Structure formats: C-alpha cells, structure tokens
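Forgive a beginner's question, but might I ask you for the amino acids of a protein and the tokens describing how it folds?
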Amino acid sequence: MRIAIADDQSEMREFVRNILQQAEYACAEFANGRQIVRALKMETFDLLLLDWNMPEQSGIDVIRWARSNLDPCPPIIIMTSRTDSNDIVLALEAGADDYIVKPEKEDVILARIRSTLRRAMPQAVAARIQTYGDFTFDRSTNTVVAFGEAVALRPKEFTLAELFAKNSHRPLSRGYILQAVWNSVADLPTRTLDMHVSRVRTKLKLNPENGYRLQTVFGYGYRLEKLQQIE
C-alpha cells in the first residue's frame, strides 16, 4: 500500500510518516496542495491523507480535483485542527472518506487509515487463492489459471500479474509498480519493468483475441483493460 501525505507542517509529516512506516506502508510527502496534485497526475496512491489548511491549494481543493479527475479516485482522509461541525460536513460532502481532528493518538490514526482502506479495497485481504475476473492466482505455487490454462510464473512476474489483475482498468504509475513489486529498488534498470510486463502479457495471453489489453499509459505507466465484447 502506498499513501500520500500532504501537510505544510514538516513536523506533522514526520509524525505521520513514522506511523505509516512502522505499519509497513510506503509513503510520499508533499508540503502543499499543488505539489500533491502534480504528483497525482504522474503517480498512483492507495490513499491520500490531507491537511485542510495548505498553501496554494487547500485539502478541500485537492479533494475536489481528485474526485473530478482521477478514475478511480483513491480514498481520502482529511486530518486537520478544524473542529467545527460545519467543516466536517463540508469535507465529507466534498468527497472525503474520513475526518481526523488533530491532535490524535498514533493508534487511532492508524486504525482510521486501516478502516478506510478496508472499506475501499476489501479484496486486499490476503489468501492463498485469489480470483480476479478471468484469473485465479495460487500464491503457494506462483501459478495463474488464465482462460482455463494453468501458467507458472516467476515470483516477480506473479506479483506483477496479480497487481494488474486486482487493479483492472486502473492506471498504475511506474513508481507505484516498482514500489509494489521491487520495493522501489533505486538502481533497477528501466528495462527490467518493461521486460517483466512483456513476459506477463505473453504468458497470460493478454491480447484482444482473449478480450484483454495490457497497455502502456504514455508518460505514466501501465493499465490492464478488459475489452468490451461486441454482440
């Protein structure tokens, strides 16, 4: 899971970052609303944790932009010192999934984050066998049953294939994929990801003849699409 933190107070960003890292979440930090909007155009996140009062663009501005421009939009939590009930209503109506009032205890913040992620992504609960559409993944053998045929994959190929399958139709940035599959190995050659994508595409027969397309999103990353059948 990759979480974006936007807050103009560095102490608050450090506080939240420590909570997330101890819980083994990956995170990225931004000092104002404009920075995170710029990042959202290029990167993929599983949850946004936003301060309300930020320079350039407020947390509410970011919510409205995200809800209008991201499909799907990740879940969003506002974390702010504003306690007025009208502010809470405004944030929730703008599209926030939860509202945390500062200051709050670490365990409460983490519980609210986990609860929001569970509601947004119930399929994320780990199990040995997972099925996403036409693909069944067996984590004990790194085997995928695709279109009635069992295909054995290498460990990284398996992780990459499952990432695409459970995020079907969701564009995934290169940075997000590298974090999820390779734990953001800094010196990973650029071609490594491209070669793994090519292998997954070939081995699982992700082509229009089978009703799928694993395509490059120019300047961003990749997306697995299930094509509509024409009657």
